[in-house]
Structure formats: structure tokens, C-alpha cells
Design brief:
Double Stranded RNA Binding Domain, alpha/beta, signal, DUF4136, DUF4136 domain-containing protein, two-stranded antiparallel sheet, 4 helices, 8 strands
Length: about 190
């Protein structure tokens, strides 16, 4: 019984931490040598439906400063004059809903007796939907555009749950670092 409760506790912790973590998705132009790009620049951010979460100076600075550090760690040099590759970002916050589940506990014992040091006698019923909750997800999309070909050659998206605007803005550097790990060039 102790082993089962330890396993269930570990599973619950794993589920809770996986729900709050960042997720990343990427796509790129195949068979392209990203080592050919030596300099980079920035295009203005794309207007988005960010509900003002990331449309402020602190959020923009968190995104740009972290992205610049990560790009330069991969050997590219910033320039305003004819860069080889251009980067831009899109910030989006959208609302979604998810099901909330509950279950009943059926047991015997109670406050006046039958306490067992190895556990409480009883069982849980299967979980069942009890309603929906609204949640917000923040997405930062980074794109790399080949300046000469005028086409997107790499795109990556980082997604995290947004339950607090300040926490979301302070978490942007970690999200950008995770997005840049998806870039085809590794850190030098």
C-alpha cells in the first residue's frame, strides 16, 4: 500500500509539473546549411492578438535581449546593413477551455475509528467530467527569413500557460532560450 501511494504521489507531481512547463514546436527548410548565415538583423514584430500581455516595453526587452544573446551564442553577428538572415517574432495569447474532472471516495472508517497506519480502507470511483475551466496560453513564434530568397527558412514556437501577466513576462527569457534550442545551429 505504501508503494502504491508513493507511485501515485510521484505520478501526481509529474502531471502537475508537466502541465505548467513550456512546449516547443519547430519547422525548418530541409537540406539548408544554416552555417552560411554569418550576420543577422531584426524585422519589426508582427502585430498579434496578444491582449496586451506582451505588448509592453518590458516584455519586448525580455524577448529581444534574450533572443540576441542566444543568436550571438550560435556565432551570428548583429548588423543593420544587409544582414544574411532576418529574425522576427509574433506574440499571441489566446483563450481555450479544458475539462475539469472529479471523483468520489467511498470508504469505511471515519473520524472515530478504524485508523490503520498503512492506509485508509476505501476506494475511489473513476473520474468524470464536472465542468470546464478557461485558461490562457501564451505563444511566442520566432521566424528566420533568408534576406536574399525573401522566404522563411526556420520557425519555432514556444507555448506556456498564462495565469498571471507578470509571471508570464518574467518567464519570457526561459521561453526564448527554449525556442532557440530548436535553431539548427548549436551553441559555439
Amino acid at each position: 500500500m505504501k508503494n502504491l501511494s508513493l507511485i501515485l504521489s510521484a505520478f501526481a507531481i509529474l502531471v502537475m509539473t508537466s502541465c505548467s512547463s513550456n512546449r516547443y514546436h519547430t519547422t525548418r527548410k530541409q537540406n539548408l546549411d544554416f552555417g552560411q548565415y554569418k550576420t543577422y538583423g531584426w524585422l519589426p514584430p508582427v502585430d498579434s492578438l496578444s491582449k496586451d500581455y506582451f505588448n509592453n516595453d518590458i516584455a519586448k526587452d525580455n524577448i529581444m535581449s534574450t533572443a540576441n544573446q542566444e543568436i550571438e551564442r550560435r556565432g551570428l553577428t548583429y548588423t543593420k546593413d544587409n544582414p544574411d538572415i532576418l529574425f522576427r517574432y509574433v506574440a499571441i495569447v489566446n483563450n481555450k477551455s479544458r475539462m475539469v474532472y472529479g471523483s468520489h471516495h467511498y470508504g469505511w472508517g471515519g473520524p472515530w475509528g478504524w485508523y490503520r497506519p498503512w492506509g485508509f480502507y476505501g476506494m475511489y470511483s473513476p473520474s468524470y467530467p464536472i465542468g470546464k475551466e478557461r485558461i490562457r496560453y501564451g505563444h511566442i513564434i520566432l521566424e528566420a527569413i533568408d534576406r536574399n530568397a525573401k522566404s522563411v527558412v526556420w520557425q519555432a514556437r514556444g507555448t506556456h500557460e498564462v495565469d498571471n501577466p507578470e509571471k508570464a513576462i518574467n518567464g519570457l527569457p526561459k521561453l526564448i532560450e527554449g525556442i532557440m534550442k530548436q535553431y539548427p545551429l548549436k551553441i559555439k
